[in-house]
Protein: Diguanylate cyclase/phosphodiesterase
Amino acid sequence: MSNFVRNIFRANKHLRAAFQGPQVVAFVPAMALAAFWLLGEMAMLTIALGVPCILSLTGFFRATDADSGGVHVAEVITLNMLHPLASEVLSIARCQKKMTACLLLGFENTQALASRHGPETIIKLRDAAAERLRSVLRPGDDIYVLESDQIAILLGPVMRLDLESALQLATRVQAAAEEPAAIDRIAVYPSCSVGISLSSRLEENDAGERLLAHVEAALAEAHANGPSAIRAWSRHSRNTNADADPLESEIRAALETGEIVPWFQPQISTETGRVTGVEALARWNHPDRGILPPAAFLPSIDAAGLLPRLSEIVLQETLEAMRGWDNAGLTIATASINMTTQDLDDPRLTERLAWQLDRFNLTPHRLNIEVLEDVVANGPDDVIARNIRALAALGCGIDLDDFGTGQASISALRRFDVSRLKIDRSFITRLDTDDDQRFVVAAVIGMAERLGLDTVAEGVETVGEHALLAQLGCTHVQGFGIARPMPADRIPQWIEAHNTKLVQAPRLPRATG
Structure:
């Protein structure tokens, strides 16, 4: 936006404010009287009749959104286009000695939702959420739908806006955006995180660009701590643009000093309730920021080309943990590790993995290799296909991760010797209360049984979901409702406590026949 357009926008705002209120009653007659004395009766009539018409046509007498009781919704291309608008809101707030804020809402699991329901799903969810937000916000607040599948909200100036008030508003905004939406007559349950930037945390001369940079950084931090997290920018928050390069050097050091290690999430049998395995999930024990989930550092690791090094560390630490549990007399049948396309593209992958297994005195069937469904569905090249088949021939289990979010065919499942399907968490959410979810999961489990494949449901968070999965015949479950990921040294204590509870717990019935 040019400076000329920006100045016109500002002048329009200030003139509109000047002409609204009691002063306008005296101002127009004063102009008409002056015209009469200077130019005569015709000039007086022109001013008296013409000025109000001009002001009305240009919108000076039109009520603002705050006065008319409406919430403005507009579409823009990028967050950068909001810079002059945010600057204007800040300017008005400062002139009136008031406060404002910006909220930025970002949807999660967009790739999985798009794969399941079609590429237009996220746009429909975003637009529906923007309309629902009208009922949550005050008159004078503006909603901007962004091309990046995000929604920005600029709050109209208010006398008092502290962090607690902003968090309460963000909670209401999040709840409205996460309401289920009907897409092609199927209920879709989105999740989203929210970032907050308060004008009270800006320097005196900061403009709208800084307000928006802060809210973008807050949303990134929320996504890193999600799903469905809310974060407000503070002076301790990290600026995503400024931290890109230093984070890479931090990550390189963290990989080599043991700060990034696997934590393990138990998987249990729905038939016996016993622990049947664990999944290795990377965690960064950051010296200043505490334990960070993969979302906070995996993009930087990928950008730096360090995914193979991370996989190597996770594999070695997992096998070492398995040996330690064995030596302690703990029975954990399998451990699952994720492998990326870069890992599978290594011609010597099977050879190296076999050597590592032998080094820790573990048989290949104790290790499950998780491969994303897209890797199988997209017709991988000869090296990847050969490696997956070779790992299966070695004796490793092949888990198809995020099943249902891609386009893998039954022939692909057979061609790559897949032994287990991991049902994506987007199918598990509200499984016990949503008939559509139940129908889809039942179909996946039924297909797996006919193909002789085991199933594991990830993201199980409630007793109801767990019980229904057992009834439907899913063989294994994992999720926060069973156990959160934990360090290797806490696994024995957790299993001991879990086995003690099994003695008194009722058996969950499974489907038969």
